[in-house]
Amino acid sequence: MPDLATPLIEWYRENARDLPWRRAGFGAWGVLVSEFMLQQTPVARVIPHLEGWLERWPSPADLAASAPADAVRQWANLGYPRRALWLHRAAIEIRDRHTGVVPRDVDALLALTGIGDYTARAVVVFAYGGRAPVVDTNTRRVLARAVDGRSQPAPAAKRDLAAMDAILPPSDDDAAIVNAAAMELGAVVCTARAPRCDACPIADRCAWRAAGYPDTGDDRRRQARYEGSDRQARGAILKVLRDAATHAVPLGDVVPDWHDPRQRDRAIDSLIADGLAEASEGLLRLPS
DNA sequence: GATCCGTGGTG
DNA sequence: TCACCAAGGAT
User: Fold this and answer.
1) Within 7 A of a protein CB, which nucleotides of strand C?
2) pLDDT value at position A246?
């Protein structure tokens, strides 16, 4: 396999975006919060929310001392609000099991709520300078094209970690840069729809390019339609709860004109089951 | 491994 | 317009 690390490192040094979590001294807690927010939410939407969160809760213990409702409300419209709940739980776990310090090894991080293969390794590598393969959707696309000669990546799988590990250089510092560079390349050059191969530092060794950019198909499952979905109903309900000045809403006032009342009631039940809402005495509210 | 889970920008 | 896509994780 051709050397991908060297051109990626050189390209990254020249072209890396200036993102908040890349600033020197940003801190492991800041990195962890940013990674939670970045799970399926675009960079441009995360940045405006990150500073306010960290000013309000500068440490895991600060967040752990607040009610989950405050975390869900601060999460605002970032989407997938379970992440706010999970980040809050992770903060409690960090306080109780790790003396308030974000763990620096993969296994300890994986044991925390809401942290999986990507986030655990991102914290180890980007916050602590450790060595591990960090694989996100951008990296999977870059590897699928450059290494496998495919137009789109296969669905995420464990073997992606080994594939990334295989291109990491010996030095831990360089390996960290290659991890970041692969993500960056996928985000700004080797994009999903219209890749800018003329600006790609590894175009001369890209298997997909060498094969003539074949359409190798896409076996990833398509996202379910949002319009009319339970997710849409849950989102509408949770927005009502976030925006409620009194922090409690009579059940009859929760999206009363929803087109499908059974779907609305099902969504309320599922929010309660997820811990995102609580019901008592005919009132619905965010979790205390 | 398949499915579920928000929200908004974009080609 | 509208399907696609976005620094994933839990079940």
Assistant:
1) 3-10
2) 84
